[in-house]
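Researcher: We're teaching a course module on how sequence relates to structure. For the next exercise, students receive a sequence and then see the predicted structure as tokens, so they can try to spot secondary structure elements on their own. Here is the exercise chain.
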Amino acid sequence: MTKPVTSRLPVRVQPNASRTEICGWYGDALRVRTTAPPARGKANRAVAEVLAHALDIPPSNVSVARGHGSRDKVMEIIGIAEPELLRRLDGLLRPGDAATTAR
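Model: And here is the predicted structure for the students to work with:
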């Protein structure tokens, strides 16, 4: 049985934000804001859900691989190769957005 394609994505999370959104790039990490608090994994679940929705994949295909209790996380995404993942994310972000130019 072949192993499914898996990608890892560095993410910088801002919990307790005024809205949930993908903001752009923060260095090499994707910056994500969420209204969810960091308590009891709520922000982690919210980040996984927003990424799954944005990438049009099931939420079960997105999980925290590293950084469960930190703002800086590594998300594991099953079913999308890294070049395709980055292409999809770049397509979501506005070209003139200051956050996208940091990458």
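Model: If you want an answer key for the exercise: The CA atoms of residues 11 and 30 lie 5 Å apart. Confidence is low (pLDDT under 50) at residues 98-103.
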